[in-house]
Amino acid sequence: MLWAGRSAIEIATAVRQGEVTAVTVVEEHLRVIAEREPRIEAFRLVREQVVEEAQALQKRRDLAELPLAGVPVAVKDNLEVAGEPTRHGSAASPDTPATGDHETVARLRAAGALVIGLTNLPELGLVAVGDSAYGIVRNPWNHERTAGGSSSGGAAAVAAGMVPLALGNDGLGSLRIPGAACGVLAVKPGTGLVPAPAQDWDGLTENGPIATTAADLALALSVLAADPSLAEAWRTGRRTDPSPPMLRSVWADDAEVWQPQPPPPGPEPFDLRVAYAPQPLPAGLPVDKEFQAAVRAAAETLRVAGHTVVEHDRKLPTWLGPATVATWLRQAALTAGGLDRDRLERRTRSLARAGRALAAVRADGSRGRERWRAYGADQWFDNADALVMPVLATVPPRAERWGERGLLRNLLVNVRFAPGAGPWNMCGWPALTVPVATHSGGLPIGVQLVAPPGGEPHLLGLAAQLQAAHPLVRPPGYA
């Protein structure tokens, strides 16, 4: 296996330079998926026609100008891929093939990526665990544990080396939670940077990439955002003109084309004011001691890298948690509306029913969200350039059929698992997860980096510095 497990940048560089064909790359990844998928259940659909698409890509006259040339990409099954049904993890969804690609999928294809499959997610993307009618997505680090959710299959597929990149989305943590659970990187962009999915949860949901390196994450985000200045942000912590091998023509038809060159090493030093909060949750929501230690270790790494690092000892406001839960339940009711109730899971029906009940008494979280967006987030953040905090509060729950259980058990498992992710959707700020340690139980530990609007370059640069000090480790058996 020569190319499976390589980074997206390595694959694309080799395809552009003729060292390997896109056909060889996708055929090898298909073999790896066939071998590893039965253990993980990351995919609802593996697209065998991707081989023909790779053959067509290989004939493109602009192959040497494509930043993602020949890179296999997995797409979350709530984003349209032309010719394939979009099932949203639900048996109640229509099986009509999509007539076109979602804009983010179209941008990846235009940059040379090849869609190798559609990944599993919990029904309608409503929860932070990975089970649905199409399978139970298992964590590559421990098959008895969930991969997280709702971008479950994408994170698991990247962690297991089945693809170098995945496209998912994040409504209340749905990229960062599985990214942290599976030990890979994932970024939720700030509001408006990347085209959102059709069901964007009143602006809460953002599409974003999952990868194994900060450089790959920056490259994929730059393509999704149609912003080449983000491609090198992992190296510098700021937007810059694209340097080789980035090719400006992919993002703007009338812009100058860069010729491919080997990328220089990085990241480079830069200086930010970074706050860290090992236990930012209000009373009643404890954070695992090892997760707290990982935040402190990440903060020390960034201090050594040259940043001004200060401890943030405030707690997230107590009213924000109930507002976030109410917002979640309201979206469950809205998303499930119009679907055949008899074909929905018990979990979805109960979440939607609770959301309708709260909406009837005007307790839908909207006032708390507006309060947090208007001044709460900025005041709590305390004028730092970036914040380091836990993604998860506990190790991932067991990989079970949670969809067959009722409201209370699902509320408890989700709230206890990852209560620190949703606040940043509530205000639309960018946030990212990067793995930095391994728990004593054998699972990875990711920390969450958060920045004010426009701070994606800071997050990518900090992630690269953390990754340089804490290199990615593959799950046992998936190297």
List descriptors.
479 residues; eleven-stranded mixed beta sheet; two-stranded antiparallel sheet; alpha/beta
Notes on the protein architecture:
The structure is a single chain. The protein has 479 residues and is an alpha/beta fold. It is 35% helix and 15% strand. The protein has 15 helices and 15 strands. An 11-stranded mixed beta sheet has the order 1-3-2-8-10-9-14-15-13-11-12, with helices on both faces. A two-stranded antiparallel sheet has the order 4-5. A hairpin with a 2-residue loop joins strand 6 (138-139) and strand 7. The longest helix has 19 residues, at 22-40. The protein starts with 7 loop residues before the first helix and ends in a 10-residue tail after the last helix.
In summary, what is this structure?
Helices cover 35% and strands 15% of the residues.
